[in-house]
Amino acid sequence: MCRRCDALSSRPLDRHHPRGPNLAGKSSTWESSVDVSKWQMQYLAPLKMLPQLAQVLLLIATTATASAVPTTVTITHIRGEGTLSCPDEAALKGNVVSRLGYDPFVPAAPVRALTRFTRAGQRFSASLELVREGEAPRTRTLDSESTDCRDVAESLALALTLAIDPQFLVREKPRAVPPAPPPLPVPAVPHASAPVELAVYGGGLVSVGLSPSPTVGGNVGLGFRYRALALYGEGRFDAPASIELAAGVVHTSLLLGTVLPCLQWKHIGACMSLSVGALQVDGRLAFGRRDTSPVVKAGVRLQYEWMLFRHVGLLIHGEVSGVPTRVTVFADDVAIWSTSPVAGNVGLGIIGVL
Predict the structure, then answer these.
(1) Are residues 258 and 347 in the same domain?
(2) H-type helices in the chain, by residue range?
(3) What is the reported pLDDT for 58?
(4) Separation CA 349–CA 22 (nearest Å)
């Protein structure tokens, strides 16, 4: 097509011309330089496809059911030679699905659609063939003056949409449900720090190793606990034990102070035990005397709390210790008893936790 319009290339201006009289008294010309070809391809080419689109609508009207209920379709899509710039089957389906708002394409449907893109020179064409079981195929072709496949592809997608839902253009579109507002953030509740607990206990025990025979005694303790950590201070007293001799009796008694750093897990505790105290020996003999010797021991203790009430329960423990300080009792320069290098005790008491 020519780039200039010869019919409008030269026209004298006079007083009857809409542009007004030639005030200069000289003849002049008005020459158009509008790019008619580009304008026509951009604005007129889609309009030229209206008759063909009307034929497609007629095809759809003849294949639609009487109730105009949307149907499902099995599609076969072909792109001919030179049409790789046209949408493939996935893109065409996506165009239709975006218009309808749902996916109408199934493998076996009552209506089969054959869509095809072809090219002749610089022009693209599209065809739509609809086949319903028991009826003859109906085919229409869409041609475009444009050298771009987009126009004919959009027309084909619209035609296929109307073939699936003949009342697509007049059907009320579902209203988009606004998204629910995001939930309000829940304010973080500061975790209350675990309180420091005060534990008080006391009870009886039976011990061996630091007296001539198994001896009963008692202990009382006070401690502080925080989460899994605990620290106790304890005082212990062992009742006097006796050694019978031909010349008389020797009595021993024990006082100990103990420090117990512990780890607590639920109701079970594991502690290190470090004790310092005094062993008193009273020889009730002809030449007997009373003497006191230091005692140091270190060991481990396991204990279990059986809580009978919220703050009160029973405390059971067992302890084994090494005794590095050895005490030996003599009578008439004869050793009659020595402390054992290993000592132990078991106890049962009551504990209160505040």
Answers:
(1) yes
(2) 36-39, 45-48, 50-63, 89-100, 150-164
(3) 52
(4) 128
**Is residue 227 domain-shared with residue 152, that is, in the same domain?**
no
Residue 73 · residue 104 · CB < 8 Å:
yes
Residue 178 lies in a domain: no
Distance CA 255, CA 245 (A): 24
Q: What is the pLDDT of residues 282-329, one digit of tens each?
A: 876 655 677 888 999 999 999 999 999 989 999 999 999 999 998 888
**Euclidean distance between the first and final Cα of the chain, in Å?**
102
Average pLDDT on 53-59 reads 53
Strand partners, 116: 78, 127
Domain range for 246 = 197-353
What is the reported pTM? Answer: 0.47
The structural domain count of the chain equals 2
Same domain assignment for residues 208 and 141: no
Q: Is residue 70 part of a domain?
A: yes
231 & 109 share domain:
no
Q: Are 74 and 112 in contact (CB under 8 A)?
A: yes
Closest CA to 300 of 260, 341, 340: 260
